[in-house]
Automatic annotation (TrEMBL):
Keyword flag Translocase: no
DNA repair in keyword set: no
Location of the ABC transporter domain: 18-238
GO molecular function: ABC-type transporter activity; ATP binding; ATP hydrolysis activity
InterPro entries listed in its UniProt record: AAA+_ATPase, ABC_transporter-like_ATP-bd, ABC_transporter-like_CS, ABC_transpr_TagH-like, Bact_Polysacc_Export_ATP-bd, P-loop_NTPase
Organism, as annotated: Saccharospirillum salsuginis
Pfam family, one: ABC_tran
Protein name, per record: ABC transporter domain-containing protein
Length: 242
């Protein structure tokens, strides 16, 4: 791995190919990622920007260790801990929000007593009211995002990976979550944040990568990458006559 101690994750030439079948049972391949190379530095908030279906979520799942790439290499600093926050992943639907929060904390290595000690903060941030004690299967997507984000804030890991959770919910909570992410950044938490929203990436990230069609189209200064992405999207809209 890179000898730079500030590098927590180093991905080299990552590719991900999915094999699937059409309605006529003809098999075909979808190349979600095509030879991506990137690094994640300690203490940074790295934004992964791109349209839906461009390969962002596949990349995040590889970085989280949930799936393995078809080819390429992912190197981690020894003992590195990671946590992925994404809608629909990790919650047990028949358990209450409270019990899921406890379980999430315990899966990150906290004792049950330590996990329970975080409940008041999680409940206050999530703003779920009485639903905090109801089964997660009764939650809307926005409510699950609130619970997931609030739980992630109390997660003590080296790298926090966040996938599109700020794309749901009301404006008040989105602003609150963005401010919390900025506080995490100021507290030296390492974050990889995936979004198709250039404005969100621009607000909370100090470096950005733009992915299009499974390849990196731009990377570096957040404002410059976000500007290039917006220009690209505007051109697409013009072509579609929007």
């Amino acid at each position: 791995m890179n000898t730079d101690k500030k590098t927590l994750l180093a991905a080299t030439n990552l590719s991900m190919t999915y094999k699937t079948r059409s309605r006529t049972f003809r098999s075909f391949e979808h190349h979600a990622l095509k030879g991506l190379t990137l690094e994640v530095k300690r203490g940074e908030t790295l934004g992964i920007l791109g349209r839906n279906g461009c390969g962002k979520s596949s990349l995040l799942r590889i970085l989280a260790g949930i799936v393995h790439p078809t080819s390429g290499q992912l190197e981690l600093q020894s003992g590195l801990t990671r946590s992925l926050l994404t809608l629909g992943l990790g919650f047990r639907p028949d358990l209450s929000g409270r019990d899921n929060a406890i379980l999430s904390a315990m899966l990150q290595g906290k004792s049950k007593k330590q996990a329970k000690a975080t409940l008041e903060t999680i409940q206050e941030f999530a703003e779920l009211g009485k639903f905090f004690h109801q089964p997660v299967r009764t939650y809307s997507a926005g409510m699950r995002a609130r619970l997931g984000f609030a739980t992630a804030l109390k997660t003590d890991v080296d790298v926090l990976l966040i996938d599109e959770v700020l794309s749901v919910g009301d404006t008040h909570f989105k602003h609150k979550a963005e401010q919390a992410m900025l506080e995490k950044l100021n507290g030296h938490q390492t974050v990889v944040f995936v979004s198709h929203n250039a404005g969100q990436i621009d607000k909370v990230c100090n470096r950005a990568i733009w992915i299009e069609g499974g390849v990196i189209r731009g990377q570096g200064n957040t404002k410059e990458v976000a500007k290039s992405y917006r220009q690209f999207m505007n051109e697409l809209d013009k072509e579609k006559g929007v």
